[in-house]
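G., the chain you wanted modeled:
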Amino acid sequence: MVYTACSKINFGTCSMLFNKRALFNFKVINMKEKTKKLVIITGYFTGESYGLLGPQMAATIINDYTDYAAIVVGVTNEDDKKDLKIALNHYFKDRQKVVGFSTLGGRPDLFDFAGELKDEGAITILAGPQAGPDYKGEIDWQTHPHRFKGLSDHFSFALHGPAQQIIPVLASGPDFDVSKLEGVLCKGEQGQIIENPSIPWDDAFLSKVDWQTLHVLKDAVFEPITITTAQVLQQIGCQHAAKERKISIDYPAGLTKKGFQPSFVTICQKGCSFCDVAADKGYMGAVNETAIKEQLLCLPTSPDGRKIPFELINESPLFKLARIFELMDEQSAELSQINLTLRADYFLNGLESLEKVLKIAVKKNVRILLSSIGFESFDDTILKNLNKGLDKQTNLDAVQAIRQLKSRYPAHFGYLKEEGANHGFIHPTPWDNPDISYGINKTISMYQLSLDILPNHSTPLIIHHASGLADWIRQIELKEHIEFQRLGTTIGWWQTKDRSFI
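Predicted structure as tokens:
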């Protein structure tokens, strides 16, 4: 059975419309009674054992509120897709395959795999960050054929927004028109894209995570793994993405070398210009403490009786970090390690609060790890074009403060590569030139950043087709009558479509 439109998709249960309150009335408790299954496929790294908050929270919602049993399968670049298909066939047996795809990291192999499953009769669902734009395709691709045309041919439909929108979808009857449900994107009978607004985020669905749902592929079967690092969601989005502003971004340095006049492009941007999450979620605010407390309780416990290390998802966590310890005290539970991901300026602004927390951490023998500081660059031109909202000196001030803290709290404060940290450093970028490269290398040498700050490998600038930099590059294409290469969901800023490198 091949689905070319989403008007009638057979999930085989009751056909009833759900409002937001009714979601709570559809709770399935006994997993053993479930006869239907769902797999969420997501990208993963070989040999790792970290949890996946988004997919695993979605699996938890499906298991708790529908008559489907859901697992999450992390698929690495090295996994054989033939083995993956064998494992799916074994898992579903003669049941209808319902396969969700989330947090794919732009991997074309997983897009193609979803398309293969769909052609064979499976129901394939695209969800997670940027599901809507990736399903619809790049802006105006219909009139610009070189642009990314989207993934609507690969998936039965997409869901953008909160995961609980899957509940009425999975409860719809055999002839129910899911195109009427909130958060759904699908193809209509005439091939047009139907897009329904998503529902608001609801903290009630952000409280529970079953961390035992994650599996990996081994010998053509799904094998559950025990995670060693989890996540706790304290804030949705980033404050830097809360306010839109006009920014000017320079032309790529390579165009100037090829004879184009130096120029810039002005775009409206929320957050960092390369950040597709900023474009996807913006800033939604804090999660309430009841939900956070429940998430902390859901964390697996290590053999020593403490909760396993977790990343606190909050771009500005330092002012509320002490409250995490208080919530754990209320539950007579102990922490082992909290991993923080934040900006350099937010680190400096919360330095006093962090010092207070470190004194608590010493008493409780808990480790605070700066797992990732988004430095991104040590050049003001590049930071300006990335719309980081800070300068090189701010980054260097943060480095100095981090090193000083380490000297005072050597056992309970971490930030080093060998301690598990991986700080943001984007290179190469479109704006690299001899002067900028010389300046960055000089700064790296003067401040000995390679010793403790810079990762072993930098991250090349990735331009997702729905990010601010994608608007920048499309304006350059139209103005200069050139076309940059598309590589799946990303734009290859380093190479024009005729394969001439810039």
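The two ends are 46 Å apart (CA to CA).

Shout if anything looks off.
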